[in-house]
Amino acid sequence: MSEYYFELTINPNKNYELFLDLLTSLTNNAIEELDGTLIARSEEDLSDVKEGIVQFANALNIECKITHEKKENIDWIKQYQQSVKSVEIGNFYIRPSWEEKKDDKIDIIIDPALSFGSGHHETTSSCIEAIDKYVNENSNVLDVGTGSGILAIAAAKKNCIVDICDTDDVCIKDTASNFELNEVNFKNSWIGSANKAVKKYDVVIANIVADVLAMISKDLKNSLNDNGILIISGILDKHIDRVLNKFKDLEQLELIHKNEWVTVVFKNN
Ligand SMILES: C[S@@+](CC[C@H](N)C(=O)[O-])C[C@H]1O[C@@H](n2cnc3c(N)ncnc32)[C@H](O)[C@@H]1O
């Protein structure tokens, strides 16, 4: 990428379409149209194009504001990457692939994508905290609403056997590539929710939203083994009582508050 680029703006007071046609014939670069102004950008100097437009406007006696500027190129990809930070949660270190891992931490790589779950949101980080504390090695785990797969990957890194589901098929695709990136595997995956589970689990995790958690509370509980652990999150504190009410037959082990978000850990006694 070159250090500079050139920007040509053309704002005719009439015959806009004629100027658009002329500019299109004079340059191979993409042309932006913004409120009656035509903008062409190129790493090549656009002085010749500017000269052609000036002569055209003069010949037709059309008033036209024209600017031609040399501007500093910004490496947008690099700038974006610099804005994505690693995060440390308990024994886990979650990082984008372009950052170095920490040798004394359990490494999780999540690159920014469309699916939710980079580790920065309070609900995700509280769930990771709960996984760190309550999930035993080699447990059977179901991640409901897996998003990027971050919670399931954290469990898989603790040698758990994990199943994942999400109502959004894009998440299921993203999750598969994130597992690959982290060199761990899931066992089963499906598009849908906990009601499609065909077995019971030692741990069920669901970071969704209060209303959905309340709605699927029976399915979440039905997928739990005796003595199984349920971690739910995505609950704004103003909705916590309503959600707790749906799970009052389980033992409440911990409430984790982060800002206005609450995560709850239950045991199925
Ligand atoms: C807040 S994101 C959580 C992503 C990730 N597990 C995390 O903790 O960062 C919630 C996810 O739940 C999914 N979802 C919403 N309703 C659902 C439902 N009824 N059953 C399963 N997944 C659902 C959404 O598609 C979304 O990917």
Question: Oligomeric state of the chains?
Answer: single chain
CATH architecture of the largest domain: 3-Layer(aba) Sandwich
Overall geometry comes to elongated
User: What does the main sheet amount to?
Assistant: 7 strands, mixed
Entry summary:
The chain has 269 residues and is of the alpha/beta class. The chain has helices at 16-26, 47-60, 76-83, 122-134, 150-156, 169-181, 210-215, 217-222, 240-246, and strands at residues 4-12, 31-34, 37-42, 64-72, 87-89, 92-95, 106-109, 140-144, 161-166, 189-191, 201-207, 224-236, 251-258, 261-267.
Task: Please characterize this protein's 3D structure.
This protein has 269 residues and is of the alpha/beta class. The protein has 2 domains: 4-73, Reverse transcriptase/Diguanylate cyclase domain (Alpha-Beta Plaits), CATH 3.30.70; 117-267, Rossmann fold. Helix content is 32%, strand content 33%. The chain has helices spanning 16-26, 47-60, 76-83, 122-134, 150-156, 169-181, 210-215, 217-222, 240-246; strands at 4-12, 31-34, 37-42, 64-72, 87-89, 92-95, 106-109, 140-144, 161-166, 189-191, 201-207, 224-236, 251-258, 261-267. A 7-stranded mixed beta sheet has the order 10-9-8-11-12-14-13. A 4-stranded antiparallel beta sheet has the order 2-3-1-4, with helices on one face. It is elongated and about 85 Å long. The termini are far apart. The mean pLDDT is 93. The structure holds S-adenosylmethionine. Residues 115-117, 124, 127, 144-147, 150-151, 165-168, 171, 193, 207-208, 212, 216, 234 line the site of S-adenosylmethionine. Keywords: Cytoplasm, Methyltransferase, Ribonucleoprotein, Ribosomal protein, S-adenosyl-L-methionine, Transferase. Belongs to the methyltransferase superfamily. PrmA family. It is found in: Cytoplasm. It holds the Pfam family PrmA.
